[in-house]
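Hi R.,

Here are the chain sequences for the assembly we discussed:
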Amino acid sequence: MMLSKGLKRKREEEEEEKEALAVDAWWLEPGHPAVAQAPPAVASSSLFDLSVLKLHHSLRQSEPDLRHLVLVVNTLRRIQASMAPAATLPPVPSPPTAPGIADNLLASSDAALSASMASLLEDLSHIEGLSQAPQPLVDEGPPGRPSGAAPPSLGALDLLGPATGCLLDDGLEGLFEDIDTSMYDSEFWAPVSEGHKPSPEDGPGKEEAPELDEAELDYLMDVLVGTQALERPPGPGR
Amino acid sequence: MGEDTDTRKINHSFLRDHSYVTEADIISTVEFNHTGELLATGDKGGRVVIFQREPESKNAPHSQGEYDVYSTFQSHEPEFDYLKSLEIEEKINKIKWLPQQNAAHSLLSTNDKTIKLWKITERDKRPEGYNLKDEEGKLKDLSTVTSLQVPVLKPMDLMVEVSPRRVFANGHTYHINSISVNSDCETYMSADDLRINLWHLAITDRSFNIVDIKPANMEDLTEVITASEFHPHHCNLFVYSSSKGSLRLCDMRAAALCDKHSKLFEEPEDPSNRSFFSEIISSVSDVKFSHSGRYMLTRDYLTVKVWDLNMEARPIETYQVHDYLRSKLCSLYENDCIFDKFECAWNGSDSVIMTGAYNNFFRMFDRNTKRDVTLEASRESSKPRAVLKPRRVCVGGKRRRDDISVDSLDFTKKILHTAWHPAENIIAIAATNNLYIFQDKVNSDMHRGRGRTAFAGGCLKPGKKGFTATNHRKPTRLSALKFTSFIPGFNRAQSFPRH
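And here is the predicted structure of the full complex:
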């Protein structure tokens, strides 16, 4: 977490610098070429960061302003399309391998940006409780992921679906998807080494660094989301 | 309703620094009733204040029809949705008056989730002389009653009573942005970001969903509903606007669910003005039918547009509200000002349109002469009966003495809500927590001296399709409009209910 926060701060500083540039251009005559149409390379990058920040901020609201959110997302798509004209922009990202926006951004941006986006998504996932977020951090999706895995995909707007649905609207499932599971997340991460997970292979006194590989991540996420019952022992390495 | 002694809302007037604003006092909607006699305002604190126009008095010719506080009441309270752990704001998003059908006045007021029907009645007489009760209402000692009397209605100080008659709740998942009363006076509609519901004014436990643009997968959401209104004459027609700048005219006779529009009004994007913010600035923040019912007025971030219902391809008129902001869109995006939702208004004869801007400026456009004016709503420029001076924003080049430069505009002073009296040149402007009412002094003098030439009523006139009613009101010439202020910067926090 510390690392991601550091990354974010750095990104903000960088964005401030770029905004200063933008502000300077502001004072120029309207006819000035620098102002007329901001050079895509410079403006887009800071605009991109700004839009991502706005999106993040909007999603963090308990009840996001839908209009604001939709406009920011659409603007972000435009910016992203202009930054990477070669990359295809799928209108509907295919579930369940990756959320639409995050995936495209990662595909087309550099390592630093992708790392910060990843941390952003991780934060979002902890808040919203849709815990498939760690998935897009690694380029290869896990094989054999059941296609029926819980919420179909993680586009920014899908995070809204359950949260803004009401009892009348989405039924009982809508209620439970809303619950913040970040509390449970921390419980699962920490005491892994204490051997909470039953395993026929492990001895009680076995000491291991609490490394979790991808398969275990998958398993834990599925448990949290409710598609898996907590009976199957985790994979090798325990 | 009880008088408000809520100290939370009292703005201490000895604080000369006018930048101190109690958030609850920020005006969030302004609406004249159908005759213009009453003016209702709603604020962020869930309060509604109604002003009434004083009848013109020969004794005081200067206070010709000024507005005074008529009633104040708490319409909505903050609520907590325990299921979703969310607070529902009490801010009044919209007020719409019902056409008056008896001595009482009625209005609909709504916050994000719940619409309420309020009935406003006057009481100016009370019965006196009961046989069994004394003046305070206590039962009399029967031995003291020696004769019978008939209770008599005696005049009393006018009391305005407000009561909630209907509460239309649980109809909306998303935030309500508009309500509109149908010309049939029996139904009304309410619109949120994704759905529009039709209600019957007498029935609160159910509503009909007439528009639903929610996609099956929320991830596919790219457009929301931003405003909607019923046609003023045709009770089956209504229009709704979207965040992508399109208008959809729907006919309720065509289908129960009006997802398929009858007409789609959309202007193709201007390629020379294309930017990353094109969509945001095209988002329509308000749509209003003209009084005639033939046109629609829309407001997006930089322009107001007049659309002819018979032409879907593009608006018939486009007016630039503050085009000097076009080069500043990036900064306005950064500080979120680009998302501000300005309203727009027609004058009674549909010849002048008005909308707000920044720096407490508001703009008027004369459709006939194509002239426009920028005026300011502020304490300094609104001494009682002072004529408003036109303002100018300079963008470089020659600068006149009183011009404001673009860079010194105050973007925190935004005029989002404005209203125009249905018949006369009286306008109400909400500037944060202040309500300004301006009247066109010149025309009203004409009005008194030479008869009602400026505001004639409608008359029947033969036309190709038989008799049609035409509005013979003389179109207002903008140059003749000189607005004076007779309520200098009315500060709502000091308002008191009338009694």
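The two ends of chain A are 25 Å apart (CA to CA). Residues 2-26 of chain A form the longest helix (25 residues).

Let me know if anything looks off.

Best,
T.
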